[in-house]
Design a protein that fits this description.
about 35% strand, 2 domains, about 130 residues, 4-stranded mixed β-sheet, 2,3-Dihydroxybiphenyl 1,2-Dioxygenase, domain 1, alpha/beta
Length: about 130
């Protein structure tokens, strides 16, 4: 097997308009393609930021995530930032709850967690430029 890189992360949301607003207007992803699949009553939104791709799906009556954040499966999605304090203040100014900034015991780097509109755990991880 010769994997080059991760191509995309797929996320299922409950409130499509709210999640679309969050990923586009708060996190800054650009819309690549948007489609409504009538037969599934489902949206599919392709997003991209610095060659990182997210597929945002809406499905009618999707089950909730069983626990936070230790459910089986994807634990969290992490975003690299160069100034974590600035980004935390931005999120808070948009009424998004953010955990206290912590230090990674193995790398000494700063990190923190917040959630998307459906409670998906998202991480900010600081890498100074």
């Amino acid at each position: 097997m010769r994997i080059k890189r991760i191509h995309h992360v797929a996320i299922i949301c409950k409130d499509y308009k709210r999640s679309k607003d969050f990923y586009v207007n708060i996190l800054g992803f650009k819309i690549v393609h948007e489609a409504y699949r009538k037969e599934r009553e489902s949206y599919k939104l392709d997003l991209e930021l610095f060659n990182n791709k997210i597929e945002l799906f809406s499905f009618k009556d999707s089950p909730k995530r069983p626990s936070y954040p230790e459910a089986l499966g994807l634990r969290h999605l992490a975003f690299e930032v160069s100034d974590i304090e600035r980004e935390v203040e931005f999120l808070k100014s948009n009424n998004i709850d953010v955990e206290d900034i912590r230090i990674d015991e193995f790398t000494g780097k700063k990190f923190t967690f917040f959630s998307d509109p459906d409670g998906l755990p998202l991480e900010l991880y600081e890498i100074k430029e």
